Amino acid sequence: MNILLVNHYAGSTRHGMEYRPYYLAREWVHAGHRVQILAASYSHVRISQPEMQLVTHDEIIDGIDYRWYSTPAYKGNGFGRVKNMLAFLWGVWKQRHLIAVEFKPDVVIASSTYPMDIWPARHIAKLAKAKLVFEVHDLWPLSPIELGGMSKWHPFILWVQMAEDYAYRQADIVVSMLPKAQQHMVSRGMDPSKFHYVPNGIDAQEWEHVEALPYDLGKTLAEVKQRGLPVVGYAGTHGLANALDTLLDAAKLAQGRFEVVLIGTGPDRDRLLQRLVDEKIANVTMLPAIPKSTIPAFLKIIDIAFIGLLPEPLFRFGISPNKLMDYMMAGKPIVMAIKAGNDPVAEAKCGFTVAPGNPEEIRDAILALVAMSPSEREAMGGSGKRFILAEQTYPVLAKKFIHAIESM
To answer: Tell me, which fold does domain 2-201+393-406 have in CATH?
Structure first.
């Protein structure tokens, strides 16, 4: 069938995040479907942006038809980002008849994180007599209200709320990456029978040929390993939400018992580095960000992986972090300091889940893993890898998504 995927922030292995649209589309193409992705020319999450000559630009990436719509660059979450959204939505809206006639979609998926793409997507689906899917990454407008502190009466929030409610009513099915979101969606007008859960996933092919770490970074990690202590690793953004202060507090409580290595960048990195100096935290090493392709090599070196988030009510709907799946695919036992509606670590039996914001509990969980033999830690990590391979590789998820569509 012909699948039209509307995703403002869609990327590729060439452009960077978001990867999910690319990986799902690639699997659908391999299965014999034709896929076109509609995306904005500028996204803050990409490493590189497509080159634009005209208002739209078409290209084929790994068998996927991409159409990029010219949108202005922006910084932060202010009016510049709203202008970027409006430019993309207007570009797709203007071409709704052309898309319906030229591509002839059998399925139209609205999947732009924000829900306003449901309006052009529904018109295209109606013109083409296609099925309409609403894919939910995050709950908007609940996310900017609960995480960003925006008023529910803010004009932007009212606009987003209109789109969310419309999407739940008009979509034939709703695909959610959040496992516990059904009740909220029903409260906004969704028929409960529309709900399908398809989480984020892993591209197992990327783990078959591990790319080596940069020389200087590999040398530093070798020096850390030579100290003879188990190594706890974290790879990702260094921001307030990632709760790395608590990990540093836990490390400080257990100097001489394990090493911690943080890899990445972010707004809090310089402040965290200064903490190491000011507080003489000698068992923490902070290293710069590395390419996504070398993350498996880093995870191969460490003994235990850490993931944490600040406590937020929004997590009651569940979590599906890509970082956690990388850890599981690497076969590492995990300490997860997150309170959420689901617990992937407990479900996969691949580590310990502790309360967020509690350095003593984090320390104790790490030390419990340190007390295990290497073979016991390997068995625990292996449980997580088996879970990911069985449930959350993109070939599995792509089939699950198609099954949801065919169930309409």
So the answer is: Rossmann fold (3.40.50)
